[in-house]
UniProtKB/TrEMBL annotation:
<feature type="domain" description="HAMP">
    <location>
        <begin position="187"/>
        <end position="239"/>
    </location>
</feature>
<dbReference type="InterPro" id="IPR036097">
    <property type="entry name" value="HisK_dim/P_sf"/>
</dbReference>
<keyword id="KW-0597">Phosphoprotein</keyword>
<feature type="domain" description="Histidine kinase">
    <location>
        <begin position="254"/>
        <end position="470"/>
    </location>
</feature>
<dbReference type="InterPro" id="IPR003660">
    <property type="entry name" value="HAMP_dom"/>
</dbReference>
<keyword id="KW-0902">Two-component regulatory system</keyword>
<dbReference type="GO" id="GO:0000155">
    <property type="term" value="F:phosphorelay sensor kinase activity"/>
</dbReference>
<feature type="region of interest" description="Disordered">
    <location>
        <begin position="466"/>
        <end position="489"/>
    </location>
</feature>
<keyword id="KW-1003">Cell membrane</keyword>
<keyword id="KW-0812">Transmembrane</keyword>
<dbReference type="Pfam" id="PF02518">
    <property type="entry name" value="HATPase_c"/>
</dbReference>
<feature type="compositionally biased region" description="Basic and acidic residues">
    <location>
        <begin position="467"/>
        <end position="489"/>
    </location>
</feature>
<keyword id="KW-0418">Kinase</keyword>
<keyword id="KW-0472">Membrane</keyword>
<dbReference type="GO" id="GO:0005886">
    <property type="term" value="C:plasma membrane"/>
</dbReference>
<keyword id="KW-0067">ATP-binding</keyword>
<dbReference type="Pfam" id="PF00512">
    <property type="entry name" value="HisKA"/>
</dbReference>
Amino acid sequence: MVAFALVAAVTATTTGALTFREARTGVLQQSQDTVIVQLRTQVTRLAPALVLPAGRDELRRFASEVAGAEPSGAWRVLVVYRGLEATSVPDDPFEELTPALREAVDSRSATVFQRVNRADHTALVVGMSVAFTSSLSSSWPLTGLQVFLTVPQTTEQAYVDALVTAVERAAVPALALAVLLALLAARGVLRPVRALRHATRSIAEGRLDTRLAVDGSDELAELSHTFNETAAALEESVAELRGMEARARRFAADVSHELRTPLAAMSAVTDVLDEDAAGLDPDTATAVRLISEETVKLARLVDDLMEISRFDAGAAVLHLDEIDLAESLRRTLAARGWTDTVEARLPEPDALRGRVDPRRLDVVVANLVGNALRHGARPVRLDLHEGEGSGAGRRAVIEVLDSGPGIPDDVLPHVFERFYKSDAARSRTEGSGLGLAITEENVRMHGGTVRAANRPEGGAVFTVELPLRRDEPTRDEPTRDEPTREERA
């Protein structure tokens, strides 16, 4: 629209300027031609009566008679003859006459003219040399008499000023009309563009069934048609990917569920074999212990897969209870025999309480501390304190710090991804590769955040921030554990 208005403004201005120039030239040319014709006529009529050589009085009378040809009295005439000068107005300095015009009249027999601008007015100055002829010669000998005329161009200047005003008055409506046309044109162009913008935003928000109405056959209609084809292809691809993802999740959940029954039987058998391993020969005892360890790892992996499948299916729920957070962390360490292994910096009993799911908080702390013991180096420290955190409101901050080599910079952004292992850590470990992913999901369910970083003095630090809320959350469920879809199956 701005470009349209600028083009219209430039066009109107250029047209007005050209029109003004031509009109001004025409007005001045007509005025000039009229004055020159009148001057020639008057000089031709009066010059034969002037007897040369003439004195100053005859020259003054001749100048007055020439000036009298104009009824309005606007003419001022200067007559020059052999060094004598006389004007139609007594003591007229005739300032408009320039040396260049005098020289032009002296050097040629033609009539010359010049427009002279003064501070308060513009004047037309005309000069000519008077010649005579006879029937015996075809030449025009000069008499030495020169006539100069000055005419103020007040009327012409008024015409020019009126023309400028008219051009200005015409340009404003033209520009307003151009802006109006620009608005109409922009509206016609921007309407489908706005519709395309809203449709694109709708697609970005997940409404993949958004389509545009295609009207006409111009470039915007072609763009709308292309958008509809792209949206349809995207919707089909996303639906296919979601179906594949749902089948993959279902497959993982089904496999995990189906493995639980044989694993339970295998665990019972390996427990019996562990008790009798001392009485077996060394090779058999080693094999029994290996089977027992691998069965435990497999059981842990199946449990983690079941937990992840609950998160993916949206079946995981929070069973919140207001508890003493420090006491909960002490129980987590004691239940796994880490009381003497991990340095705990916890507040006094009942100093920091919050509404959390005790089982999921236990999983979070156990996963982080276990990860620090397996992949870091001792001493490992567990801190709990209250802080503002990264969000608004009071928050409980849990930190797990180790003294190991830290986490490589290229690995740090991926530590919470499922089954992710860096190049330097691809060896087989006790973990399932899902512990930190489960930790992140549990923290997110509480409305908190978890992040990993490296300490300046060495080692890694995992920081969990949980909101200390007192209100009843919307995701709270009855305290009785409901069976999941996989468990009901």
